[in-house]
């Protein structure tokens, strides 16, 4: 019942309308957000600096907007320029016995969350998760003194962690919905917050970067094939991400006949979730596959997605990160 209600409310957000009854709560929430921000600006709440500069990749809306693929692209772009990045994250969807938790490709998503494990797997960068991003960043610097910069996956609103640059991501299609703060709309912070970020990035068709899918990898044996090899076949597609329809559309664009099975974001899969009464292939996002990698089902395939940056956005991003790969920056860190 609660999930259905949440879905109806979110549908209103992105239909550019809102429930009038929620607007007083949105005003109250907005006042609390303003007070919290002022408390940090005036030193009532303390901001903590860590031993390395921090680049935050986040958003001002709830739900998925494509942050994690951009984090992966940013870490890879820095590495190509000789800058070693480490990543910190809250580890949403995971629960560890103790924090901070160091994450690598073999860490259980149930402990670290699916996105940190995906980042560690795709980039090879050191990753640390903790609800307290300052503690995560301090642990990262202590364990990996050779890193040059920290990339924070999400955390735009985690003001306690000082940062040198902020990138705000939005979904190009859904934008900022009806423009209202929670719970009347999807905004964590007012739109005016965007005036203080260093770079805004729109994800999706016509935006600053898009996700492309070209291949598939079978989970049980790591066999690989071109996504086009599934063309004209009927496949099951599952996606527990912020916008499952985007994944289904990408598969359809490659000529696949898709039977779509959207799941809640960060869904924890069981084998029963992937039984559909036939032996057709089951294609899923990498984020979903991270949580299914121990399943011995030859029907399961992961579909990696890569962020492709527009020339204009790539130039603006390079301008933002340029100070972090200057020799003087490394010498004086």
Automatic annotation (TrEMBL):
GO cellular component terms given for this protein: plasma membrane
GO annotation, biological process: lipid A biosynthetic process; lipopolysaccharide core region biosynthetic process
A Pfam family assignment: LpxK
Keyword rRNA processing found: no
Transmembrane segments: 18-35
A GO term, aspect molecular function: lipid-A 4'-kinase activity
Annotated binding of ATP, by residue: 61-68
Pathway(s) the chain acts in: Glycolipid biosynthesis; lipid IV(A) biosynthesis; lipid IV(A) from (3R)-3-hydroxytetradecanoyl-[acyl-carrier-protein] and UDP-N-acetyl-alpha-D-glucosamine: step 6/6
SUPFAM superfamilies recorded: P-loop containing nucleoside triphosphate hydrolases
Catalytic activity: a lipid A disaccharide + ATP = a lipid IVA + ADP + H(+)
Enzyme Commission code(s) on record: 2.7.1.130
Keywords: ATP-binding, Kinase, Lipid A biosynthesis, Lipid biosynthesis, Lipid metabolism, Membrane, Nucleotide-binding, Transferase, Transmembrane, Transmembrane helix
Cited function: Transfers the gamma-phosphate of ATP to the 4'-position of a tetraacyldisaccharide 1-phosphate intermediate (termed DS-1-P) to form tetraacyldisaccharide 1,4'-bis-phosphate (lipid IVA).
Family assignment from sequence similarity: Belongs to the LpxK family.
PANTHER family documented for this protein: TETRAACYLDISACCHARIDE 4'-KINASE, TETRAACYLDISACCHARIDE 4'-KINASE, MITOCHONDRIAL-RELATED
Name the record gives this protein: Tetraacyldisaccharide 4'-kinase
Organism, scientific name: Salinisphaera japonica YTM-1
Source taxonomy: Bacteria, Pseudomonadati, Pseudomonadota, Gammaproteobacteria, Salinisphaerales
Gene (name only): lpxK
């Amino acid at each position: 019942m609660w999930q259905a209600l949440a879905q109806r409310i979110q549908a209103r957000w992105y239909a550019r309308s809102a429930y009038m009854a929620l607007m007083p709560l949105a005003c109250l929430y907005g006042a609390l957000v303003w007070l919290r921000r002022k408390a940090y600006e005036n030193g009532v709440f303390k901001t903590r600096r860590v031993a390395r500069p921090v680049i935050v990749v986040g958003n001002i809306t709830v739900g998925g907007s494509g942050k994690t693929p951009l984090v992966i692209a940013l870490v890879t772009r820095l590495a190509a320029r000789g800058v070693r990045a480490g990543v910190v994250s809250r580890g949403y969807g995971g629960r560890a016995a103790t924090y901070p938790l160091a994450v690598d490709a073999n860490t259980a998503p149930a402990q670290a969350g699916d996105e940190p494990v995906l980042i560690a797997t795709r980039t090879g960068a050191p990753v640390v998760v903790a609800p307290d991003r300052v503690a995560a960043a301090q642990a990262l610097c202590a364990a990996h003194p050779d890193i040059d910069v920290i990339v924070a996956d999400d955390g735009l609103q985690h003001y306690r962690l000082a940062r040198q640059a902020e990138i705000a991501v939005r979904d190009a299609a859904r934008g900022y919905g009806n423009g209202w703060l929670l719970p009347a709309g999807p905004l964590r912070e007012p739109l005016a917050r965007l005036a203080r970020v260093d770079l805004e990035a729109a994800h999706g068709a016509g935006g600053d970067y898009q996700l492309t899918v070209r291949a598939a990898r079978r989970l049980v044996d790591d066999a690989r094939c071109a996504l086009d090899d599934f063309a004209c076949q009927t496949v099951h597609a599952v996606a527990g991400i912020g916008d499952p329809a985007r994944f289904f559309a990408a598969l359809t664009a490659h000529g696949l006949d898709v039977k779509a099975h959207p799941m809640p974001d960060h869904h924890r899969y069981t084998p029963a979730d992937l039984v559909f009464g036939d032996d057709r292939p089951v294609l899923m996002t990498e984020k979903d596959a991270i949580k299914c990698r121990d399943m011995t089902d030859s029907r399961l395939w992961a579909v990696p997605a890569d962020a492709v940056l527009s020339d204009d956005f790539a130039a603006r991003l390079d301008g933002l990160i340029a100070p972090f790969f200057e020799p003087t920056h490394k010498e004086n860190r």
